[in-house]
Amino acid sequence: MTMNGQSGGDVVGVGGLMTGDMKFVYRTDPDQMPVRRLIVQWGDGLAEYSPGTEAGNSFANRRGLKEDGNSACDESSFSTSPNACVDRPFAMSHTYTCPGPGFPACGPDGRPQGAALATGCWDANFALPGGRIGACVYLPRIHVKDNWGFCTGRCPNATSYITRADGEKCFDGSALEGNAAMRTNECATSVNNLTPPDNAWTYFQGRVIVGPP
Description:
mainly beta
């Protein structure tokens, strides 16, 4: 995942607003296609969702390019064929704003914590270009779910339910039959399921930082 061409570090804007251009690639197991759900959470309370119902959605892999610059959609299998694969990243744009120091304070690492992961935080110590101090900080993230119910993220099996064979993969077990403890949905995307690293999201590895007007 990149923001404004950066895979990490601080992506900084000043003057109260900044356009963030996100690009990311994803791929599913060839036997678990297609992708049924895509969500981009910008980290400021706004999100972009795949349309319709999961059952009605069918998204191709976005595999991008190989290290040698050639297309990763090389037709070596169905999952890399033209009907199932796109060699361009998934791309979206979003306008970030910063109203000023009304947000919750950032954590010691200068990043949002707890409920602020959904809305952003205020870093009172961040030095902006031009000498001003203080900025809004956002942590965007993505969620992708495949046809079998596996999704992005890291979800170690919890002690509150029976250990499943999926290990640390995130899996929606709500449609499983049998013991109710097996039907845990680890792919839930609610605000209460945001704290990294153990959840169903993949996070931008840097920070989006916007100075106030």
